[in-house]
Specification:
Length: 134
């Protein structure tokens, strides 16, 4: 299911695909704030609750800096009970320079009980989703 074209007032757009047993969410636009990050994760959560996938691949091609670690911690806390608890999540950060920052979010999410990993390449993330331990 694809969302309508991005609202010019919205800093992001999402596109969804379901292939090979994986729900894929492609997010683009401009990031840099907790509010934007939370908004697109909540939009993804709506799709997760509707489709109930076991595996989710999020590909982030947004420009701008990721939120700082303290905001990523808050993000994880706010995403509890949104539907990700039984879903294995691979997050692809397209900008290699941002991967170390985003990995803070992985640490916080894993500590909160989420099954999530951060990757730089979509293919590696897909392999982890398909063949990694259950």
């Amino acid at each position: 299911m694809n969302l309508p074209p991005r609202d010019p007032a919205s800093p992001f757009s999402l596109r969804f695909e379901h292939r090979r047993g994986i729900l894929r969410a492609y997010v683009s636009g401009v990031n840099g704030s907790l509010e934007t990050t939370l908004a697109y994760w909540r939009a993804i959560a709506v799709e997760v609750r509707a489709r109930r996938p076991r595996r989710l691949l999020v590909v982030d091609t947004m420009s701008g800096e990721p939120p700082p670690p303290e905001d990523l911690f808050r993000l994880v806390q706010r995403l509890r009970d949104e539907g990700f608890e039984q879903v294995r999540v691979a997050y692809v950060e397209a900008d290699l320079a941002h991967v170390p920052q985003v990995e803070h979010g992985e640490i916080f999410a894993r500590e909160a009980g989420f099954d999530v990993r951060v990757f730089h390449e979509e293919r590696t993330a897909e392999l982890w989703l398909q063949y990694g331990p259950e």
